[in-house]
Amino acid sequence: MPVNFNGKLVVATSSSALFNLSESDQVFKEQGLDAYQKYQIENEDTPLEPGDAFPLVKKLLALNELSPDSPRVEVILLSRNSADTGLRVFNSIEHWKLPITRAAFCGGESPYRYISAFGTHLFLSTIPADVRNALDSGFAAAHIIAPECPSSTEGQLKIAFDGDAVLFSDKSERIFQEKGLQAFTDSEKAAAKQPMEGGPFKPFLQVLHSLQKEYGDDCPIRTALVTARSAPAHERVVLTLRQWGIRIDESLFLGGLDKGLFLKSFGADVFFDDQEGHCLSASKHVTAGHVAHGVSNPL
Q: Does residue 161 sit in the same domain as residue 122?
């Protein structure tokens, strides 16, 4: 059984997503493991600069400041480093005053296998293979891509999701890709009253929704669905979320329009999408998370 964090939202991040390890990685690629270990130990008192997921993690942890006696978010470090080389990561966590106390250092192996043991709802990484392994194991995970302009670490936390293959299964997306738009539209109209199956991010959205209900009217979390769907394919989405008992704050049915400017207008702290092209486009404006799942992401 996963560890019980008493209903908290549990987010795991890799060390390379939380901090900028580009210099360290260059040492590893050019000089090998021994040189990398030596470099990290020699620099373990030199704080690492923030990485692609740092603004999002900081904003998630800031939710705990609203209820310090009953924190609602737990962030866990899952790292390919060893504990020896990972000491620099923990020193950097202390330097940036991040309340992160739990970690798994896996000595070069993928840390995704500890996601379940920690009861993780979301895994953020910059290593695509680790993300895919987590998704294949049934967990919400994303390859984080930083925006061209730095993200804010203050204010309301705003999280946006694509629909098919992210919140929902990829069955409808398969029809679109295999048979075209008209077949997709006809299929969605015929199945409008039939709720869709959940995708990898459904459990994460459920936990977010539960937190939103706890906070009430003055909620520090806002969610959005940003989908390429348009009418009449919208009805099945609305009825599916209703059947799940989940409220999305804003729903954008864009009919194939580029999502980037809409995400900027929403002020998203992160946008999760299954198509890498959409993520790269979105990252011109906001942090994006590529969800390598479903028909758009063959092995």
A: no
Could you tell me if 134 and 191 lie in one domain? no
Confidence at residue 141, expressed as pLDDT on a 0 to 100 scale: 97
Distance of alpha carbon 165 from alpha carbon 278, whole angstroms: 13
Would you say residue 3 has pLDDT above 60?
A: no
Q: What are 45-76's pLDDT values in tens digits?
A: 999 999 999 999 999 999 999 988 889 999 99
- Residue 124 phi/psi, 5-degree rounding, is -110, 135
Q: What percent of the chain is predicted at pLDDT more than 70? A: 98
Half-sphere exposure of 281 (CA within 13 A, CB side): 13
| Catalytic entry in 25, 34, 52, 162 | 162
**Which secondary structure element, helix H or strand E, spans residue 125, and what is its range?**
strand 122-125
Residue 2 has pLDDT above 50, yes or no: no
Q: Is residue 211, in this structure, part of any structural domain at all?
A: yes
Query: What is the Cα–Cα distance from 34 to 39, expressed in whole angstroms?
Result: 9
CA–CA dist 167, 232 (Å, integer): 19
**Domain assignment of residue 69, yes or no:** yes
Structural domain tally of the chain? 2
- Domain containing residue 122: CATH number: 3.40.50.1000
Q: Is 162 one of the annotated active-site residues of the chain? A: yes
Domain that holds residue 174: 157-290
